[in-house]
Amino acid sequence: MHTSLLLEMASETFPDRLAVGPHDDGVTYGELAARARAGGAWLAAQGPGPLVFIGVNGMAVPTAIFASAEVARPFAPLNYRLSDEDLRRLLARTAPSVAVVDDEMMARVAGTPGVVLATRGAFEAACRDPIWRDAEKPIVDVDIAVLLFTSGTTGEPKAAVLRHRHLASYVISTVEFMHADEDEAALVSVPPYHIAGIAATLTAVYAGRRNVYLATFTPEAWVETAATEKITHAMLVPTMLARVLPLLEAGGETLPHLRALSYGGGRMPQSVIERAMRLLPNVDFANGYGLTETSSTIAVLLPEDHRAAIASDDPNVRRRLGSVGRPLPSVEIEIRGPDGARLGPGVSGEVHVRGEQIAGEYLHKTVLQDDGWFATNDSGWMDGDGYLFVEGRLDDVIVRGGENISPGEIEDVLRLHPNVADVAVLGLPDDQWGERVAAVIVAQHDAPSAAALADWVKTRLRSTKTPETWEFRAALPYNDTGKLLRRVLRQDLSRPPTAGR
Amino acid sequence: MDLKPGSRWKSAVCSAEVIVVRATKDAAARLECGGHEMNAAGASPTPGGTLSPDFSGGVQVGKRYVDADSGVEMLCTKAGQGSLSLNGRLLTLKEAKALPSSD
Known about the structure:
The complex is a heterodimer of chains A (501) and B (103).
Chain A: H1 4-13, E1 18-20, E2 27-28, H2 29-46, E3 51-54, H3 60-70, E4 75-77, H4 84-93, E5 97-101, H5 106-109, E6 115-119, H6 120-128, H7 130-133, E7 144-149, E8 159-163, H8 164-174, E9 185-188, H9 195-207, E10 210-213, H10 219-228, E11 233-236, H11 238-249, E12 260-263, H12 270-279, E13 284-291, E14 296-301, H13 303-311, H14 315-318, E15 326-327, E16 331-336, E17 349-355, E18 361-362, E19 365-366, E20 374-382, E21 388-393, E22 398-400, E23 403-405, H15 407-415, E24 420-430, E25 434-443, H16 450-458, E26 469-472, H17 486-494
Parallel strand pairs in A: 3-4, 3-5, 5-6, 9-10, 9-11, 11-12, 12-13, 25-26
Antiparallel strand pairs in A: 1-2, 7-8, 13-14, 14-15, 16-17, 17-20, 18-19, 20-21, 22-23, 24-25
Helix pairs in contact in A: 1-2, 1-9, 2-3, 2-6, 8-9, 10-11, 11-12
Chain B: E1 8-10, E2 17-22, E3 31-33, E4 36-37, E5 39-40, E6 64-66, E7 73-78, E8 84-86, E9 89-90, E10 92-93
Antiparallel strand pairs in B: 1-2, 1-5, 2-7, 3-4, 3-8, 6-7, 6-10, 8-9
């Protein structure tokens, strides 16, 4: 099953409903489908290979996603925030390909061998041009929908392959066709090269919900657009939500139209979600957990779970605010030990997932097991009722003297300290223990002492989980989609100490 | 009929169209709509057929229909007046739990 079918169904059922863009100047499903067809014919005439997209969010993003699908070319959005050198290196890996590039970014990628370059302006014009609208499109049967370079927080980016059947299966098994009210509008603020941005495009088209794309995220632009566009639905990564909250707390904007706010793409500090729920009591919060390789969400913490958790005195229910909820009905999730054996409730291991939306594939290499299971490389555990708690990447687990220590648990405890604004915990090489626990603190108000923080952790967790090395920084390194760059931090901390310390 | 995943079928007696979401290995399986065998999408329609009253409940666009015996699952891509059946067994509407938007 092809993702182009999703738009075909939407455009045949509700051709005149607004699909994308501002309420007074948007594009309908019928027009989006016409542009996608024209864009596909244009693409086929430019040259072979994927449609690479290098640019900010906007109308061109859904057009390019569906134009690619029309002629069965992979859609490969690249991270334009990379350095020129890294961007050109990724682009070269897509050759032969056709790249649609924001006009002002063109100079950064000119001359990349094997890549046909076209400006965003030229692509958008072709999608409106009668010549391309009437052109015959070639008959094709290739099924890679999306090539997505992983963020590479742990090394060279890998090109994840998502096939049409994975994405289409995700959409039809999680979204009720055309169930959205006509006044619903979603604000897309993750960049085009993030799986949640692509999934947002596909699910909104199938739900019949207008999508508004924020060119680039700033908290001010997000709040302003949410207000003027009467946004009802939005998804944010935790770092984005943390930056939006102070603007709302400052008063003024109350976002009365907002009904649903989902978050994912990283660990949500409990303090941030609690503040958000207090500030927006009428909004339904949902936490979606998933990976690029799983076609986005595989588990979700529902709005009713959020409300039950925050109102509960039962610590087992209360702590679910820090979980990612339960598996989607269409996927299976298991926790397994290093020997592959399935682990019971409360025991931490590697998160495994199976289902029709799970791709588990990189270019030239599938990592899906023969029986369909995919090892996520995330560590986590499930409670007795099936709520999944994700602790972080398996590579980030600290092994101290044979004991596995999850950084996330220690970070959560430290974040509750009134003088801690942000924190990262990681393992550093240690001659005696193999690894030792280190904490990097961003202080707020009065800077706390290392001894006071160590006491804070020791009284709440075991002493082996108490960091032995404490560093203070003005800020922590995050990428633009809110992922903590532990690799950068680890390199920084592993340098020999400077004189006088 | 080769009901392989992704294959698309058109009713011979109404406007309904479906796509196969989950297939069956049963080569003798016969997919019908409105009591008449469906045609492969793109094939020319069978003239003269009429909707059987026993299979006239209709199908809705965007709904999934399943046959518990064979595991076959169809997604309706265009609504119609006929009901779907496999080897004479009516397919049933697949009830899906409503999930919040998470992207």
